[in-house]
Amino acid sequence: MAQPPEAPPAAPHPSGHETVVVLDFGSQTSQLIVRRVREAGVYCELLPWDAPDAQVAALAPRAFILSGGPASVYETDAPTLPPFVLDAGVPVLGICYGMQLLAHDLGGQVAPSTHREYGPAAVDQTTVGRESPLLAELPDPFPVWMSHGDRIEAPPPGFAVLGTSANAPFAAMGRAANAGAGVPIYGIQFHPEVVHTPQGARLLANFLFRVAGLRGDWSPASFVEEAVTGVRDTVGQERVLCGLSGGVDSAVVAALLHRAIGDQLTCIFVDTGLLREGEADQVMETFGRHMQVDLRIVEAAGRFMDRLAGVSDPEEKRKRIGAEFIRVFEEAARGIGPVAFLAQGTLYPDVIESSTPERKAAVRIKTHHNVGGLPADMQFRLIEPLRYLFKDEARAVGSALGLPDEIVWRQPFPGPGLAVRVLGPVTAERLVTLRRADAIMREELRAAGLERAIWQSFAVLTNVQSVGVMGDFRTYAHAVAIRAVTSVDGMTADWARIPYDVLGRISNRIVNEVPGVNRVVYDITSKPPATIEWE
Ligand code: XMP
After folding, report:
1. Catalytic residue at 193?
2. Residue 209 has what DSSP assignment?
3. pTM for the whole structure
4. Which atom of ligand 1 is found nearest the CA of 527?
């Protein structure tokens, strides 16, 4: 059955659990709030601040958290507080801009601060703060991370000051449930979601459990049984095709589907010609050994290279690769019988970063091909069981399903493969160069025992050529960039502090063993402002 790509994919939703909604006012750390709430054992979703009432109501939120954001409440087109937040009759916590909005709407005063406060600060608790459930068990003073221009000048009527900092006389404010009107509402000027606020997790847990009275009934593993039931209900007796990429996400999807629908599932591994050295054999061997699924390989290198000929633009590469995958799957499906569903390992960060309706106001960073790059005339309905999970949660689900560490802890590898690591045009020759450099890097990191500590490590063939000298000759050859990052979920990342001698060995081997490369540079940018991949 054909379906336009805008139609929502079938994804078992973790509803039925206590749910907290974070409303996104555009902060860089909005997703981190969601992560912290889930880590506390409470299911949480991020919705845009102007999400339709019905979408929010469908989640039956037990509390709202309002994120920070770059705007000022007194700007004319600044995001506003949607009426459902105060009408819902559930506890609210405003963070930074979220706090300023609450103050503004409830009759307090917000003004630009003479001092922009950015970085570490200490919050002194007031007498009321020390009695407050929000700050229970926090030291006094407690260290926080601030990042704000505006600040509260006067809290709204009925609100007490709970904490003060040098530049924010109202660093924390609150209205307890028993202070007259209705439900508890709190606001904090600092960011509890970042690691630089060491007691941030404690404070959020206080809000969830002491203020909102939640129990904490969610974990990634608890998701497994619901997802299995959800998949069975959605799929019925139909057949499902699952594109196995070799990465953890699609492996977890395959294991979940196999548990749910057994031999109604066929897995396809596509050799796109954009894989790393030895990868196709390794994936077929590992998955063949560990997963009792119907797994088929499709050799498709030639057709992917044809589609990429002469294409340099990263988004265009992604689009063409995404479309070609679907064409390959459609052809494979014809050899299997009627196939209604295509399963994919889409994760929540893919959904957020690809600006699908869940985050319509956000800027599009990249079209991850399994989210946005699908052709409109696709013959499948999509099923994406991990659509609401973060990467580390997907790994936990994989372990709960009994997948071995060797699959669960594989480094992520992007769907468009080496095409987004060969900058500019993708040619067979450039792929050979990159593949060799990449293999050397991974060999050396493995030999140094660093693989597991690193989220992702890879080489990039840049489109820079530079002058070098080899023996008595001048060279004018390619620069290879090597990248290794640490991360918890791929949303933010830091460059890995690889020992210099390991970096030295990698560089030495690449320039000596890979023809056409005379320079190696190590990428020391974090995400943000860079992304993990170069394209
Ligand atoms: P970025 O480069 O956006 O990547 O920081 C975050 C994580 O996602 C992977 N990635 C992709 N995965 N299709 C995928 O399946 C894609 O188009 C894609 N682009 C990036 C990337 O490797 C990293 O783990």
Report:
1. yes
2. I
3. 0.82
4. 5
